[in-house]
Amino acid sequence: MSVKYIESSKLPTPWGIFCMHGFVEETTDKEHLVLTYGDVGVKPDQPVLVRIHSECLTGDALFSLRCDCGAQLQAAMHKIAVEGAGAIFYLRQEGRGIGLINKIRAYKLQDCGLDTVEANEKLGFGADMRDYSMLKTMFEHVGIKSVKLMTNNPRKIKALQDAGITIAERRPHETGRNPHNSQYLETKKGKLGHLFGEE
Ligand SMILES: [Zn+2]
Questions:
Q1: Is 130:93 a contact under the CB 8 Å cutoff?
Q2: Could you say which of 66, 96, 130, 170 is catalytic?
Q3: Residue 49 alpha carbon to ligand 1 centre in Å
Q4: 130 belongs to the catalytic site
Q5: What is the pLDDT of residues 65-86, one digit of tens each?
Q6: 66 catalytic per annotation
Q7: Tens digits of per-residue pLDDT, 114-160?
Q8: CATH code reported for the domain at 3-93+130-192
Q9: Where are the domains of the chain?
């Protein structure tokens, strides 16, 4: 997916002042962000603390406990501020790429007993429809070539390798488990290969 850089501005947050860089997909007009903190891209060989986060409106903005996204995003921003530098790639692909309304349909099926993968498949979607091909241009723009990646998701490691980024280190990123999402997290581990409980 080809993306074009548009503009940057400051983004003050409870964890510090990030710089927000906006990109637009040329064929779909879908908008994506990179939030950088501190000096990144100054020493290209120095690995930078990075999180790849796909939009989850319900978790990121509506405090949903059905998933762990909001807690993961907040923890990533906190860890980057503590580290003194880092970047969050915020990709607008809601509901593992199926969109917000379809996510509600999938949640409804889960209310009736299906797991997250079965629900997506019942709706005719793959278990994970996310596309990471926009990352190459976004990484080039902010000048990051090597990362310390905060993730439990092997697909994201592969996506960055495909984009030519060096994974100097993987940092497990487990947070936000609660009684409402523990089954969901077990499905991510069992069916989507997420690496929980390995540190
Ligand atoms: Zn979520």
A1: yes
A2: 130
A3: 21
A4: yes
A5: 999 999 999 999 999 999 999 9
A6: no
A7: 988 899 999 998 878 888 899 999 999 999 999 999 998 888 999 99
A8: 3.40.50.10990
A9: 3-93+130-192
